Q: What sequence folds into this?
């Protein structure tokens, strides 16, 4: 179901799910100015943990919200409360870390670039789980066989039992933590 306008949003979106309490899950096809501002402000919550390079800002937002990426948002009463960005692994073929993945070039893997839910909604109401479930189900319908990403070391053990760690990076950009590159099969 395609919609070009969802109340106050100026983005072009595909509505994926909607509840009676004002919660919507959308795939953004083309991001608009008001949604860009909301995303950039939400990303500021990551600065303390991951450094400035981990942020989406005015200079790089189009890199992550474009026709080659799959950005999903959770919107509550017209406010973006979270998002997850999926990108085909092949888009990162020039990145050295991608060459550790034996699926590079097979076009069967989606890389989770960023997954963020506003802090006041984390671990409450199930919004994070719903957003991730919608993302995973959408990926399956697009015939992706695997989902990958970089997460803080120890996090991927909470994913499916079939998740494997491909490589651990002791230093990941400006982060103060080690990160693991994982692969999770989509079944």
A:
């Amino acid at each position: 179901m395609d919609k070009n306008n969802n109340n106050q949003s100026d983005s072009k979106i595909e509505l994926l799910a909607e509840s009676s309490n004002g919660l919507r899950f959308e795939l953004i096809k083309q991001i608009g100015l008001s949604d860009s501002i909301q995303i950039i402000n939400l990303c500021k919550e990551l600065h303390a943990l991951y450094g400035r390079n981990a942020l989406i800002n005015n200079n790089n937002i189009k890199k992550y919200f474009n026709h080659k990426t799959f950005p999903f948002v959770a919107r509550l009463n017209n406010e973006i409360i979270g998002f997850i960005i999926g990108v085909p692994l092949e888009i990162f073929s020039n990145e050295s870390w991608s060459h550790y993945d034996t699926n590079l070039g097979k076009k069967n893997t989606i890389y989770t670039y960023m997954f963020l839910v506003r802090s006041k909604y984390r671990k409450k109401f199930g919004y994070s789980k719903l957003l991730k479930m919608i993302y995973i189900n959408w990926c399956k319908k697009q015939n992706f066989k695997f989902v990958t990403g970089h997460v803080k070391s120890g996090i991927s053990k909470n994913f499916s039992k079939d998740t494997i760690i491909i490589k651990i990076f002791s230093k990941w950009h400006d982060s103060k933590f080690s990160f693991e590159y994982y692969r999770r099969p989509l079944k």
Remarks:
- The CA atoms of residues 57 and 72 lie 17 Å apart.
